[in-house]
Design goal:
By secondary structure, the protein is of the alpha/beta class. The chain folds into 2 domains: about 210 residues, Rossmann fold (3-Layer(aba) Sandwich), CATH 3.40.50.300; about 80 residues. The chain contains 10 helices and 7 strands. Strands 2-3-4-1-5-6-7 form a 7-stranded mixed sheet, with helices on both faces. Strand 3 and strand 4 form a beta hairpin. The longest helix is centred in the C-terminal third of the chain and has 36 residues. About 35% of the residues are buried. It comes from Heliomicrobium gestii. Keywords: Coiled coil. It holds the Pfam family DO-GTPase2. InterPro entries: DO-GTPase2 (IPR045528), P-loop_NTPase (IPR027417).
Length: about 300
């Protein structure tokens, strides 16, 4: 399972990852995150520094981070975060580089798009940069034949006056409207802030994992129903005549085919229970955190 994080340099991706991970260490409704011990220490150190107002350096490369969503200490959903360094978006010098970025976005289960609210308010983003973010995401989604979770995160919201947020959102209005209208996207729009006064830092990842789990659960339910149908069909045809004909033709009996399907059902039901555990507990987590309405104007 892959979550791609996109945004220009200084948009706050690295800070949000550390802040999100640090906040997820406090079990709420039994939900936490874990990762390799060496990375855990680095993220927690960065989180503690951020709480003091010290910000980490910019990402210099594409960084892949393996994590686990845990419930009551038990790993229930492994996933990989791919954090693109911001500069790569404006350094796409060849069609092959752009194709690789598009492929990564299209193959991801979720995308978190970071937009620096302070830079937008102060006209630091050029029209080209704004259009490039929108075009990359729209092009990648057009390649998908399944629904993808998309979280649009307006970072550094604490640096923008409440009454000015409509100006921050306006350059991305078409992108947001098109995403909400798309059948290939499950979308949320959110404001975040890190540092001494953190705001909503867990929500983008919680939403992404929750929406992935819901979609995967629905797909597994469809597979479950198909296997149940096949098992019932084989069971109706099983019997003495079937046994003799199968032995004569050296083929599996309908009873054997039925039993194979029933074994498969056990595996599918385990997967259903795992995914149900993920989305139910993430839903409880988000409710407990009392996140405000995300589709703000």
């Amino acid at each position: 399972m892959k979550v791609v994080m996109l945004g220009y340099s200084g948009a706050g991706k690295t800070s949000l990852i550390s802040s999100m991970y640090g906040r997820f260490q406090q079990p709420i409704e039994g939900v936490t995150l874990s990762t390799a011990s060496n990375l855990h220490k680095k993220l927690i150190h960065s989180y503690e520094q951020l709480k003091k107002g010290a910000y980490p350096p910019l990402s210099l490369y594409v960084d892949s981070i393996d994590m686990n969503l845990c419930y009551q200490g038990r790993q229930i959903m492994p996933f990989t975060m791919v954090d693109y360094r911001g500069g790569i978006l404006t350094e796409l010098e060849s069609s092959s580089e752009q194709e690789q970025v598009l492929t990564d976005i299209a193959s991801a289960d979720a995308v978190i798009l970071f937009i620096d609210s302070h830079s937008v308010q102060n006209n630091i983003y050029s029209d080209f940069e704004t259009a490039l973010l929108s075009d990359l995401l729209a092009s990648a989604l057009s390649r998908c034949n399944y629904r993808k979770s998309v979280a649009i995160v307006f970072t550094k919201s604490d640096m923008v006056d409440e009454g000015s947020f409509w100006r921050v959102r306006r350059p991305f209005e078409d992108l947001i409207d098109n995403l909400f209208a798309s059948e290939n996207a499950v979308v949320t729009v959110y404001r975040t802030a890190v540092g001494k006064k953190m705001m909503n830092v867990e929500y983008p990842m919680a939403f992404s994992l929750w929406s992935i789990a819901v979609d995967q659960y629905n797909q597994v339910v469809e597979r479950h129903n198909e296997v149940v149908h096949d098992a019932n069909r084989y069971n109706e045809k099983a019997g003495i005549t079937d046994w003799f004909m199968s032995k004569l033709n050296d083929e599996p009996t309908y009873a054997e085919l039925r039993d194979d399907k029933l074994e498969r059902l056990k595996e599918i039901e385990e997967e259903m229970n795992r995914l149900k555990c993920v989305y139910k507990n993430l839903n409880a987590y988000m409710r407990a955190q009392k996140f405000p309405d995300f589709n703000w104007k």
